[in-house]
């Protein structure tokens, strides 16, 4: 039996070992793909509650969740705070203001820009009868420069410091937008800086007040030359409300761009989904942003993420167009099914092949035994051949117990053929001259 087992094991075990190796390699690939699959949820850093970053963040969250990606909204003080949170991995994606990236320490170079989404003007509202047309005229006044860590504070301090007046800072406070509006309306502030969309309800409220004025920049071109992150935009008289003529005259404002940023290791599929939503939300444009201009690479002053650059220059990838987001989370099953399903289908065939080869080996040994018996010319050789045939029969009978039922029938048939060979040999032995007793003493 050991001889039969040894001869057959090298044949049917080899394909089985190959299948096992393929399954092991596939399992390793599956584990890798599972770890690299897109996340179920992301954290999106927005801004102050009720602000436009927060408003847009909630809209992004609603649309992304319909596509299968859950979004946790993280409210913050603004752009610089958002950049720091992305660096610290407490947020995956963030809205930030152009021009604020140099103000954080990205020594490892892990921050990446996804797209510019829209222009958000710098609004400077002030009180008093005196007409103000530049940041220099705010020197010595009580002003709000936005929350600490916000993009508003960053641009306000940059503009004020460029005036070369070291004494302004003593009267500047870091107030959230609602608080700054309240203090300005109450007369406890002379001016307040805001960087936000014109859609912001607080901005529209201040535009309609008779005791508060909006500053128009007389030297807008000079500011944009000195501050590359800023753009000059013109607001026509009556643009926001023709009936009430708001604003009451043509205005020139400065505007940074609102950006979407992430870390370099954010999953490419998440970036494509974010850009799909960005096109839906910002693509139609508004009173200050032309239609189909955003999202865009123009104005992104943070190193670009390669997936975003590819999307905005060449379009969405084939897989993203073809598969829904949830399917990307299960794409790791493809190699698993591609290998395991055929492998499991082959196992019964291999098992059947094993039984066939066992029976074939047995018939091969039966043939060898029959040849040896036919060549035996003396009683001693014939008796030895009969004993060897009987031992082979016992060996194969034991082996047959390990085979499936349908192959066991072949073993019974083999044993019948063995009996025919042995009966023929015993008859020859009986007719040979010499002792009449057969090898069993009968």
What report would you give on this structure?
The protein has 442 residues and is α/β, with parallel strands linked by helices. The protein folds into 3 domains: 2-25 and 334-431, no CATH class; 38-117 and 260-329, D-Maltodextrin-Binding Protein, domain 2 (3-Layer(aba) Sandwich), CATH 3.40.190; 121-255, Periplasmic binding protein-like II (D-Maltodextrin-Binding Protein, domain 2, 3-Layer(aba) Sandwich), CATH 3.40.190. Helices cover 50% and strands 13% of the residues. The strands form 3 sheets. The chain has a 5-stranded mixed β-sheet with strand order 2-1-3-12-4, sandwiched between helices. It is rod-shaped. It starts with a helix and ends in an 11-residue tail after the last helix. The model is unreliable at 1-12 (pLDDT under 50).
Short description:
This protein has 442 residues and is an alpha/beta fold. The protein is 50% helix and 13% strand. The protein contains 14 helices and twelve strands.
Q: Which short descriptors sum up this protein?
A:
alpha/beta, D-Maltodextrin-Binding Protein, domain 2, 3 domains, 5-stranded mixed β-sheet
How many distinct folded domains? 3
Proper CATH architecture of the largest domain? 3-Layer(aba) Sandwich
Mean pLDDT: 84
* Major beta sheet summary: 5 strands, mixed
List low-confidence stretches. 1-12
Under CATH at level 1, the class of the largest domain stands as Alpha Beta
Spatial separation of the terminal alpha carbons: 29 Å
Radius of gyration over alpha carbons?
42 Å
Taken in chain order, the helices and strands follow as: HEHEHEEEEHEHEHEHEEEHHHHHHH
Oligomer designation: single chain
How does the helix and strand content classify structurally?
A: alpha/beta
Strand order of the largest sheet: 2-1-3-12-4
Count of DSSP helices? 14
């Amino acid at each position: 039996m050991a001889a039969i087992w040894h001869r057959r094991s090298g044949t049917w075990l080899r394909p089985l070992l190959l299948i096992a190796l393929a399954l092991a390699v596939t399992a390793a690939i599956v584990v890798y793909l599972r770890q690299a699959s897109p996340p179920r949820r992301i954290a999106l850093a927005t801004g102050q509650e009720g602000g436009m970053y927060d408003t847009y963040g909630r809209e992004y969250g609603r649309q992304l969740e319909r596509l299968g990606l859950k979004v946790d909204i993280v409210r913050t003080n603004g752009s610089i705070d958002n950049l720091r949170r992305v660096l610290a991995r407490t947020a995956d994606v963030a809205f930030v203001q152009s021009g604020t990236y140099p103000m954080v320490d990205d020594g490892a170079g892990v921050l990446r820009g996804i797209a510019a989404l829209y222009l958000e003007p710098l609004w400077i509202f002030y009180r008093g009868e005196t007409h103000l047309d530049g940041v220099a005229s705010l020197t010595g006044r009580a002003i709000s420069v936005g929350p600490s860590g916000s993009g508003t504070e960053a641009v306000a301090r940059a503009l004020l410091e460029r005036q070369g007046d070291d004494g302004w800072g003593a009267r500047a406070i870091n107030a959230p937008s609602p608080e700054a509006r309240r203090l300005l309306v109450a007369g406890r502030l002379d001016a307040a800086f805001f960087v936000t969309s014109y859609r912001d309800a607080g901005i529209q409220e201040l535009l309609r007040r008779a005791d508060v004025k909006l500053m128009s920049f007389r030297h807008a071109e000079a500011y944009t030359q000195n501050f590359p992150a800023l753009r000059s935009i013109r607001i026509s008289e009556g643009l926001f409300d023709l009936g009430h003529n708001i604003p009451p005259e043509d205005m020139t404002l400065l505007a940074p761009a609102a950006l979407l940023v992430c870390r370099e290791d954010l999953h490419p599929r998440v970036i494509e989904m974010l850009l799909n939503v960005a096109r839906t939300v910002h693509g139609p444009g508004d009173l200050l942003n032309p239609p189909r201009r955003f999202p865009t690479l123009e104005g992104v002053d943070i190193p670009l993420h390669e997936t975003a650059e590819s999307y905005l220059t060449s379009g969405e990838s084939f897989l993203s167009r073809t598969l829904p987001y949830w399917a990307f989370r299960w794409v790791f099953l493809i190699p698993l099914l591609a290998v395991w399903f055929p492998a499991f289908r082959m196992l019964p065939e291999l098992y059947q092949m094993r039984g066939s080869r066992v029976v074939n080996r047995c018939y091969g040994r039966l043939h060898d035994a029959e040849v040896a018996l036919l060549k035996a010319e003396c009683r001693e050789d014939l008796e030895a051949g009969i004993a060897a045939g009987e031992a082979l029969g016992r060996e194969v009978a034991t082996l047959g117990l390990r085979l499936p039922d349908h192959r066991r029938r072949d073993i019974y048939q083999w044993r019948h053929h063995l009996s025919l060979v042995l009966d023929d040999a015993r008859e020859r032995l009986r007719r040979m001259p010499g002792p009449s007793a057969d090898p069993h003493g009968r």
